[in-house]
Amino acid sequence: MYDTCVDLDNRPFASVPQAERYFPGTAIETARQTLARCIQRGEGPGMVVGPSGTGKTLLCRVLAEQFKDSFQVAVLSGGRLSTRRALLQAILYELGRPYRKMDEGEVRLALIDYLSAGEDCPAGMLLVVDEAHTIPLRLLEELRMLTEVSRDGRPLVRLVLAGGPVLEERFAGPKLDSFSQRLAGRCYLEAFNRTETQDYIYAQTSSADAVGEQLFSEETCRSVYQATDGVPRLINQLCDHAMLLSHVAGLQEITPACVEEAWADLQQLPMPCSGEPAGDSAGNDVIEFGGLDDPLDETDAGAEVHDTSPLKISPESTEEPAEQLQRIEGMLADVEEDFQPAGSIKPEVELVFDEPDRPFKEEFEQEEVVVDRYATEVSDETEEPAEENEEDGVETVEPEGGRGKAKRCPGTAGASPSALPPATRPVRRREYGQLFVKLRSG
Predict the structure, then answer these.
(1) Averaged pLDDT of the chain
(2) Which of left, alpha, beta for 336 (phi over 0: left; psi -120 to 50: alpha)?
(3) Which of 5, 272, 381, 440 could be cross-linked to 260 through a Cys-Cys bond (beta carbons 3.0 to 4.6 Å apart)?
(4) Is residue 366 predicted with pLDDT exceeding 60?
């Protein structure tokens, strides 16, 4: 729309990243050189991390354009991949290979066979994955396994991952520890500074066969930087919209006012204040807001004004001390109506709590050892009672195993059951009932 007015061949600030419009800023150019070294030498996968709008997609397209004559290039978008089969099919599609009507195993073998044959891609493949922070972990592991495919000691897959700051956090986890060790380059993108913002604007306008200094003055470039904070995507949007508004207004130069209006229009904000005083007719429609420390306008109708100046007592006053004290109390009562002297407050109640009980601090009497002579093992009800020999006073007890009989002497009646040998341990199965009868009868 405005390109014919200012004699431009095309739009200088396009919304779609274009490799031919690449601007070598400090951060993005350093990242391009690092990733290019990793690709050429086959050092390992490379990763580029940056906030939104800093040029990750543009960098991916620049690398794909740079190495399209050396490798078979496949550029993927991680947001559209959810399964291993979809990932492998997308790679085959980018390489121009058949990918339909094959399961996961067949697709993987078809890709490996294509890379290993070496007929169409003797140097291997360059795989560039944009929006890699949205890829599931299982797909990242699949990409790591693809980088291990080699021939004659050279890797057949050169990998570049581009994503947001979340991508670096995912590689810091233990599940991707093996993949993180294989990364040969870690690059970080950032926004332009003030000088780079101005150079970027002039470079984009020059690519459209226009003189940037004639369209954007230094003051206008500073306004663009203050509004966008140097983010390339926001710079493109703001400058493109500012050029559109200047064309509608019939201006041949983009002014800071056009930049402010374009920014307010894009962000749906109110128009910036122009600094001109409002007329008297608009006085009733304007609501003024002041700070908390601003003095109250005494001319407002119905406003109550209190004297908030500090109290001063003149030493040369002729008033008696009692009169001065009464006057001060009256002034305090006017300023602080809610003030209550200490006498009007209810008396304080002191809560006293007893010392908490400490059961272990209590002194106990001498300990008395009680032995339960009935605490013995009780056999099944099917066992026969012990037979007592009246002649020699020896009690014959059948052992627990049911084999043979054991004898017990009368002298061992009061001994502890645990002290008896296992074969002669007494078995009393009815004395508990007799004991309960005695306890009930008192």
Answers:
(1) 76
(2) beta
(3) 272
(4) yes
